Amino acid sequence: MAGLAFDIRPSASPTPEAERTAKLKDPGFGRVFTDHMSIVRYNQAKGWHDARVEARANFPLDPALAVLHYAQEIFEGLKAYKRADGGVNLFRPDANARRFHNSADRMAMAPLPEAVFIEAVEQLVRIDRAWIPGGEGSLYLRPFMIASEVFLGVKPSAEYIFAVIASPVGSYFKGGPAPVSIWVSENYTRAAIGGTGAVKCGGNYAASLRAQAEAIEHGCDQVVFLDALERKYVEELGGMNVFFVFEDGSLSTPPLGTILPGITRDSIIALARDAGTIVREEPYSIDQWRADAKSGKLREAFACGTAAVISPIGKVCSASGDVLINGGEAGPVAMGLRKQLVDIQYGRAPDPHNWIRKVF
Ligand code: PLP
Ligand code: COI
Predict the structure, then answer these.
(1) Nearest to residue 207, comparing CAs of 195, 216, 218, 217?
(2) How much is the pLDDT for 178?
(3) pLDDT digits (tens, 9 = 90+) for 181-197
(4) Is 306 in the pocket of ligand 2 (CB under 6 A)?
(5) Domain ends where: 147, 169, 191?
(6) Ligand 2 atom, smallest distance to 264 CA
(7) Domain count of the chain?
(8) Residue 32: which of 135, 131, 163 has the closest Cα?
(9) Is-contact 254 236, C-beta < 8 A?
(10) Do 184 and 297 have their domain in common?
(11) One domain for residues 162 and 216
(12) Is the CB of 197 under 6 A from ligand 2?
């Protein structure tokens, strides 16, 4: 484990059971937090050191902390699921650890050994096990790294803090897996070739907020971005990848490059191909999307991600008008893949790709 042992320091004042139970009833997304956090520090002299699990607490923030000025920050998102036998599953944490490593590289941050990432996540799940909701809820885990050198020069920070916090969650969208509506961003793009679109840095999300606000102003749930070069090809949503289902049963999804290489996206491609479905990773234009939705060639579209799982897209809205997908209803392919994926995550179905890591 890269020679790093975590010092486990349980909180002296954990949330009383009655309060925790009340909070777990309807946690929503990302508003309720557990009692602990994992934290590991980096500096050039010691490398990664001082690994702890301790009571969740504020960070002391020097006003010159590098992350506050130049946004050298990356994060991940994964979930712990409670199995029917009382055990706990993580879904593909190795893939999150690898993507985190790639994000650190792109953002000129200290690479965190993948084993330390996984250990930090597992230790937090162990100590905060009582916070994992039952039913279709899960414990959303948020590993992140910030540049923590106190310095105003523009250069890679010499110090970093890696931490993991946890939040019990229900559905990301208020309506659960009900179809969502999306707004096509014509004024803003998310990522250009050579930029940071393929990594999970906070700045990508800061830059997406204006476009997401525009989506909400137009009564939509999420924004969908087009490519920055031609403003023509569908890339992804603010926090999800996207798939299309055609009348011949095939699927397509935008190719990797400027989009986030979603772990849910990768899992769906694998599950669909296992079932003999043709899956193309190819550019798909917004005009073609509209035309195929109208002609009926496009049967379904859905968004996918750790937070959103699989959410059918019922309506695509833009300044030039709205288009319904599958009559605005959830389609059988999206819902079937969702069930297949969720059943693996909760340990209700076999795991042919060895994606599950049992914490207990
Ligand atoms: N695209 C963006 C921009 C995201 O923020 C996310 C969520 O993490 C995804 C796609 C889906 O990625 P994953 O399936 O790994 O959660
Ligand atoms: C996730 O799905 O893990 C994300 O980070 C997306 C965000 C919109 C919550």
Answers:
(1) 195
(2) 85
(3) 999 999 999 999 999 99
(4) yes
(5) 169
(6) 2
(7) 2
(8) 131
(9) yes
(10) yes
(11) no
(12) no
Ligand positioned closest to the Cα atom of 172: 2
The verdict on residue 1 lying in a domain is no
Instruction: Note the pLDDT of residue 176.
Output: 63
What DSSP letter does each residue of 172-214 carry, written as one string? SSTTTTS-EEEEE-SS-----TTSSTTS-BHHHHHHHHHHHHH
- Residues 338, 215 share a domain: yes
Taking the alpha carbons at both ends of the chain, their separation in whole angstroms is 19
Specify the DSSP class assigned to residue 150.
B
Q: From atom 7 of ligand 2, which residue's Cα is the shortest distance away?
A: 239
Would the pTM of this model clear 0.85, i.e. be above it? yes
Neighbours of 356 (CB within 10 A): 18
- Across 32-85, the runs of DSSP E, i.e. the strands, are 36-43, 47-55, 73-75, 78-82
Q: For residue 200, give the ligand nearest its CA.
A: 1
Residue 240 maps to which CATH number? 3.20.10.10
Report the residue among 260, 263, 311 best suited for mutation to probe ligand 1: largest number of ligand atoms under 8 A from its CB: 260
Asked if the structure places residue 2 within a domain, the reply is no
Say which ligand is closest to the CA of 264: 1
By C-alpha distance, which of 76, 29, 53, 49 is closest to 129?
Answer: 53
- Residue 306: CB within 6 Å of ligand 1? yes
The CA distance from 266 to 246, in Å, is 19
Shared-domain flag, residues 164 and 185 = no
Tokens of 132: 């994992």
User: 88: domain range?
Assistant: 7-169
Calculate the CA 80 to chain-centre distance.
13
Which tokens hold the place of 29? Answer: 């997304």
Model confidence pLDDT, tens digit, residues 237-265: 999 999 999 999 999 999 999 999 999 99
Burial 295-312 (b: 16+ CB within 10 A, else e): eeebbbbbbbbbbbbbbb
